[in-house]
Amino acid sequence: MGEMVKVAQKKDVAQSKGVAVEAGGRKVALFNVGGKYYAIDDECTHAGGSLSEGELDGHTVTCPWHGAEFDVQTGQVVGAPADVDVKGYKVVVDGEDIKIEV
Ligand code: FES
Fold first, then answer.
1. Could you tell me if the CB of 63 is within 6 A of ligand 1?
2. What residue spans define the domains of the chain?
3. Is a pLDDT exceeding 90 seen at residue 1?
4. Residue 52: what are its φ and ψ, rounded to 5°?
5. Model confidence over 75-90: pLDDT tens digits?
6. Tens digits of residue pLDDT in 34-49
7. Rounded to whole angstroms, what are the CA distances from 60 to 3, 36, 51, 94?
8. In angstroms, what is the span from residue 28 Cα to ligand 1's centroid?
């Protein structure tokens, strides 16, 4: 098991939004879907767009650069032009804190 790193507090991540955080030297996109939190690498595998700035529709985030879609629960690509998944992270809520396993 990896190390749990505190990356944000619940109030930092608005409903149906993403924020960019740092965890273990990586830039990670943290999302709030209906009060559940998900974390994937922030950098789109197509050309490096910031997924935390993408539009969130349910569990799907759309890259703001060329529209690739990823499932925030797993990091899996669900829409072109990206064809490589991003890394997904385990998220644990501890009181008001949000922690990610790195
Ligand atoms: S950089 Fe994300 S779709 Fe191109």
1. yes
2. 4-101
3. no
4. -65, -20
5. 999 999 999 999 999 9
6. 999 999 999 999 999 9
7. 27, 14, 11, 25
8. 16
